[in-house]
Specification:
mainly beta, five-stranded mixed β-sheet
Length: 166
């Protein structure tokens, strides 16, 4: 995923990359190919690179435990500033490059942003009901026969108050 920038004139350019996830250093839960669509805006002093990543993942639902496949998408933007003095303290979305730089390698950022696209809570569907705490039945497949109306004796006075209000 390398973009040749040395001979580009000022303007907008579009690039599309389709690589196997292993080629850029991604492994489980990622599989198949990763697709990157990038728009590059070049001017004399800077390059603005806007990219959109699409990648397939194989997850296990955090609520019900079933395996499911999902396509993740992530958009990001990086500004490359041309500078004669290279600042080693690059920021996440700002990089300094020399005027002699002839290519930009997208692979490290694509790998990082693909990993950032993994959600904190992996759910097979938004309204996943999970598993019964008593018998372990997947509640997405139907109700179980467990009693769920057991109330701690300490809360009975509050339950009586709630019933009076309703």
């Amino acid at each position: 995923m390398i973009i040749q920038i040395s001979n580009l004139t000022d303007g907008d350019y579009h690039y599309t990359f389709d690589k196997k996830v292993e080629e850029i250093g991604l492994s489980d839960p990622f599989f198949s190919n990763i697709r990157v669509e990038s728009q590059l805006q070049k001017s004399q002093r800077q390059i603005i690179l806007s990219s959109k990543i699409k990648v397939n993942v194989n997850f296990e639902c955090d609520r019900c435990g079933i395996e499911y496949k999902q396509e993740l998408t992530k958009e990001y933007k990086i500004v490359y500033l041309f500078s004669s003095e290279i600042n080693d303290e690059d920021q996440v979305d700002l990089k300094y490059i020399s005027f002699e730089t002839d290519t930009i390698n997208l692979a490290p950022e694509v790998r990082d942003y693909a990993q950032l696209a993994i959600p904190m809570k992996k759910l097979c569907k938004e309204d996943c009901n999970g598993l019964c705490l008593k018998c372990g039945k997947n509640l997405n497949e139907g109700r179980c026969n467990c009693k769920t109306k057991e109330i701690d004796q300490r809360w009975l006075p509050l339950e009586k108050l709630r019933n009076k209000v309703n």
